[in-house]
Write a structure and sequence with these properties.
Number of helices: 31
Helix content: 25-40%
Bound molecules: S-adenosylmethionine, magnesium ion
Strand content: 15-25%
Strand order of the largest sheet: 26-27-25-24-21-22-23-28-29
Largest sheet: 9 strands, mixed
CATH topology of the largest domain: Rossmann fold
CATH architecture of the largest domain: 3-Layer(aba) Sandwich
Number of strands: 29
Structural class: alpha+beta
Distance between the termini: 60 Å
Amino acid sequence: MAGGGKPKLSSKAVIHQKFGANAVYRIEEVHDSSDSGCPGLAIPRKGPCLYRCHLQLPDFSVVSTVFKKKKDSEQSAAELALDKLGIRPQNDDLTVDEAWDDIVGRIKHMFSDEFLSSEHPLGAHLRASLRREGDSCGSVPVSVIATFDAKINSRCKIINPSLESDPFLVISCVMKAAAKLSDYVVASPHVASLRRKNAYPSEIVEALATTHVSDSQDCRKVEAAYIPCDGEEVVELDAIDISSGKYYMDSIAERLCLKDGSQVMISRTLGKASCGSECRLYSALPKLKSSDNSSEVAGSSTEESAHTEKFRKNVRASYICGQDIHGDAILASVGYRWKTDDLDYDDVNVKSFYRICCGMSPNGIYKIARKAVLAAQLPFSFTTKSNWRGPLPRDILKMFCQQHRLAEPDFTVSTAPVKSLSDIYRSHKKLKVLESDDAGDEKEREDDTPRLKHGFRCEVKILTKSKDVVLECSPRKFYEKENDAIQNVSLKALLWFSKYFDELDVDGEQPNDTDDDQTANVASSGEKGVQSITNGSVVSICYSLSLEVDPEYSSDGGEEGSEGNEDVESEEDIENCEYSIDLIESNEEIEFEVGTGAMNSHIESAVTKMTVGEYASFNTTLPEYAEALILATVTDTARFRSLLSERPALVYSIILLGVKGPTEERMEAAFFKPPLSKQRVEYAVKHIKESSASTLADFGCGSGSLLDSLLDYPTSLQSIIGVDISPKGLARAAKMLHSKLNKEAGNVKSATLYDGSILEFDTRLHDIDIGTCLEVIEHMEEDEACQFGEKVLSLFRPKLLIVSTPNFEYNTILQKSTPATEEEKSESQLPKFRNHDHKFEWTREQFNQWASNLAKRHNYSVEFSGVGGSGGVEPGFASQIAVFKREASSSSADKVVAAENVEEGSLQPYKVIWEWKKDDGEKKD
Ligand SMILES: C[S@@+](CC[C@H](N)C(=O)[O-])C[C@H]1O[C@@H](n2cnc3c(N)ncnc32)[C@H](O)[C@@H]1O
Ligand SMILES: [Mg+2]
């Protein structure tokens, strides 16, 4: 389609051209159940809603695969249909010549009669250009075409791949293509704008004039931020005239002292203005060398020298948009949308500029997302999802890559067996990174030694869009969960980028070395300086940060002026010299994990010494880096600029609202190797292996950690059952069992998961060989735990029952480094429970009493044991375990009660949530 015609059509448009109303699309919603990773699971899980499109044509029909967006499924179905029809699908696999032809075609179409009334934003520009006066009437700036026609942009990239790093080249490309249409459009080499050669038919122009509600009287301005090229000059609030009689590109040109809109270059979209509309940078178009002759676009030769100064690189503007910007620049949010000639605009202030600057670094993205620009910090370690506050590392990394126009992060997850240690160490490399720049990683490295011998490892590559490697990060650590591996490698990459982007924003690494300049002014006294909240705790605080100007240092009452005046200073003077305090940032409630670097070090070090409900306030001298961050937070830039020049102090005010101790799991994992949870499971597995049991029920199976471990060994078990009330836990257990049993089931012939409360009896679990109940009873009220004890031994009557629960006396050891808050201490001198969900925790004596009495009543014997620590040394095992054995001589009333209940046969309150049988795999509920 050389030299003209319409732009290439989408597959759907081609189908429409060929079949019109005879092409019938039907969208089907698909709820992806495979998402649960476990066929047959009877728990409804919320998967993403996907779409599949059925396209019916007169002779045949096609069905697309599933897509997240309806329109993608339609396009895919249309592509399939074109494929069947033997029509070459439209794609970007164009040759350079085809790309040129396409651009030429698109430009021609853009200046066609039809396009003038098009709903495309470019149509609005065309119409606006026709209202321009004089020579420029009907001329559309090439930067507008290059910016708002995405197809032209992508075609230009085929012609010149380096366009990716220098978008200005699109303009040269469009000019060159337009030169091929010399009969049709006027492309003056001196002016980067295009105009149709022949006038539009008068009736079209007239029709447009009547539809356009021209209210040339209205006078509107929109706020913008002016970024001078000279870095010494401050970024200031400015305004652009967007009155309806004016073409807004010309107004911007005016502000930039350029001739008209054709000399204005438009950047890609940057951050968002306060109301959410997109901002772009406007600046002078660099010189455009015409390939046909040597003339240049921006400015005639006489104006050249005046312009030279203007064409110095604008470092600040270049930084925020990642492309070279020359001369002064304007950050504004104004433009046309689809389907309307009304300008869409939004005020942009100086704060917007500083927020965009801040959001260029991973640290800044995290700060902005947490709405705590001064207080929050990108944590240096990813612990568990539950303790991570703010957007997840992978999402921040994606945003960062988008921001810097890099390709999407390329993750490679492997589950391969462990490599040799030397391999692993070698793989921890950073390309294009100074080799020796690893000092900051040392601390992390200690913790990073590969402990797991299996699991997931993840590498990430960050590439430019043209596939050059920017960073390759391959940590050697293995994680149990794939997601943890991905999040951790993302965080590693983010921390590396942060280091290079946050020169201005490095907070003290050690929280304590800045204490000297803190004038602690803590409201309540007490043992200050003693850290009472330990790493791993999640604290919740309310804080505010303000600037305080000491009148002694303020510009008119400064030190020099006050010299020798001390005697004459009247009381009135002193009264007038009030401290001014201006709020910068505040947060009613924000949570962070202590010890991960997630919070400004001043706040963290103060908070860890506070007690719940306490208020603290202290000043610090203002670090240099904070200036830009303050301007990113406040709206009254002028006032704060003046305050900042008066050597203000940064005042922190904090209330500690609450503390959640490190989780039971983390605490236990930190104290015991292998972790206590693993030791409990191993203890039970050992008993099971030694028995000749064929049926087992795990009461309160949770995510199935015991059932999981069992399947790693050959046992005599033929039927395994799990019961729980947590759908989440059961779903995880089902997923695990599904994958494990289908690989290697051993002797196991059936596996069933029930949704039900173990406080209720279900006849299907009567007379099993082994019952296990690990760390469950303390999650019930104490009387319920007693009720369970009664039910299990009188009705379920397993031959062997293993029950574990925390030994409360051991908590003093576990919590040695995590003392209670003052409030909790005053309530009781006893240690806290290990988990906020525990309803009680028993001492050894309480547990012994419960178990012994129970055993006696129901004709069982019981033995006590435990894991973690030692039974013979105070305070005993960390987890206490009772092993009940049914006495052979059992002929008690229990037997009768149980038999009666079983015979009734009606007691089956549990719901089968998932079931597996050896021969036919899973069965649906
Ligand atoms: C700490 S978890 C222990 C899970 C598993 N036994 C283990 O050791 O990994 C406690 C479990 O008890 C379950 N649970 C609490 N009350 C229950 C009840 N009345 N019936 C069934 N399960 C219950 C909870 O849903 C949770 O999954
Ligand atoms: Mg527990």
